Amino acid sequence: METALPKTPWKRQVLFLAVLLLVWEVDCEAIRYSLPEETESGYLLANLAKDLGLRVGELATRGARMHFKGNKQLLQLDVKTGDLLVYEKLDREVLCGGTDPCILHFQLLLENPVHIFQTDLQLTDINDHSPEFPDREMLLRIPESAQPGTVFPLKAAQDFDIGRNTIQNYTISPNANFHVVTRHRGGERRHPELVLDKALDREEQPELRLTLTALDGGAPPRSGTMTVCIEVVDINDNAPQFAQSLYEVQVPEDSPLNSLVVTVSAQDLDSGTHGKITYALFHDDDLFETFVIDEITGEIHLKRALDFEASRYFNMEIIASDSDGFSGKCTVAVEVVDMNDNAPELTLSKLTSSIPENSPETVVAVFSVFDPDSGDNGRMVCSIQNDLPFFLKPTFKNFYTLVTEGPLDRESRDEYYQYEVCLTGESANKEFKFLNPIIPPNVIQDTQQYFTLGS
């Protein structure tokens, strides 16, 4: 029997670990590439081996593999040549929605020896979407007593592109009574408003039909249209007014359906039928699927379920209308509060089935953990039980390696069952446990998988 090497003093172990982590962080500086969305599959993005300073064929000999967030393959690596190719067309709107810039993160893992490189791909927007209105027609009922300068809100179009490729301006078909202005209230979305230039005369012209056009900033620009039908009605000289122009509310993402979000309130100085107010949501289809408003009380309730990871903010335009079409408008800003509603996920990248004895700090397995929640709810710390001759070494952004703690003695014990290695952790002050993250329990029971110590 060979004599086991003496254990490294505790202070030397800590110093060694600190130096190793510092070197690891320096080596893991991200490499960033840029690519227009919708680029054809097979497009040569770069030679990753050359950019990393690796020799031709070194990726293959060192067991290189790509790791993508969510395990969705976006790029393809030719380990023989080092070429990095587009695996399939990448749609920026699908992958990033309205987030700008759109940056996709992935890692290159070299197994022998273990090394991890962080790589980022920025998808730039192309003008591949046209503005679209929620409806083909919109009805406005405007009293003939309306004075020049009166402003009427119009429905906004939606364009999934960003930056200059999204909606920049609105125009209206030429007429003597109205012009349109484009309002920018923060963010990228622009809203049209119809401004009355000349008083209406119902007896002269009881109805107008105008074409509203939304234009984006592409070259050439894309456009979308909607017909604005204007019905001129008789006198009703007071419009509903809201108690406040902006309502701000925070709603936990785990709120049950039909929960009360907020109550808006408007008042009309007119009496009788002219002063009767009805409330309505005035926005796109996504909000109609998420929220519902009581047209009489102004109570806004939760309708389909909230998901902080999918949508963190909602801005609703609420219209209060009276019987003759006079209307007032307010904005409801809803902030979704994150809850710890996602379980951490573990992905195994490497597993060693045979461990040489008397080889301290041998890498047994490499894995990563991921929690979709944000802030403290997504922060994780992993550990294993103390009675095993292994320890977890954090590497880079939730990557861990399972390493032998010291020299192992085959004559004392020649195998360790994988189900003995149980990962536990903590996320947002809640403990969780990965039971046998390396081999599923039913496989262990059937095949009795284990680590073998070589002599």
Concise overview:
This protein has 455 residues and is mainly β. Helices cover 10% and strands 42% of the residues.
Keywords:
Immunoglobulin-like; mainly beta; 6 helices; 10% helix; repeat; 4 domains; 4-stranded mixed β-sheet; disordered N terminus; Cadherin-like_sf; 455 residues; 42% strand
Task: Tell me about this structure.
- It is a single chain.
- The chain folds into 4 domains: 118 residues, Sandwich (Immunoglobulin-like); 109 residues, Cadherins (Immunoglobulin-like, Sandwich), CATH 2.60.40; 100 residues, Cadherins (Immunoglobulin-like), CATH 2.60.40.60; 114 residues, Cadherins (Immunoglobulin-like).
- It has 6 helices and 33 strands.
- With 455 residues, the chain is mostly beta strands.
- The termini are close together.
- Strand 13 and strand 14 form a beta hairpin.
CATH topology of the largest domain: Immunoglobulin-like
CATH superfamily of the largest domain: Cadherins
The count of DSSP E runs of length 2 or more, i.e. the number of strands, is: 33
CA-based gyration radius = 31 Å
CA-to-CA gap between the ends?
10 Å
| Contiguous helical run count | 6
Helix content: under 10%
Name the shape in a single word: elongated
Oligomeric form of this entry?
single chain
Low-confidence stretches: 1-27, 432-455
What spatial order of strands do you see in the largest sheet?
1-7-6-3
Mean pLDDT: 79
CATH architecture of the largest domain: Sandwich
**Whole-number count of domains:** 4
CATH domain class name of the largest domain? Mainly Beta
Largest sheet, in brief, is: 4 strands, mixed
The SS-based structural class is mainly beta
**Content of β-strand:** 35-45%
GO molecular function, one term: calcium ion binding
Membrane topology: Single-pass membrane protein
Domain Cadherin: 134-242, 243-346
Pfam families: Cadherin, Cadherin_2
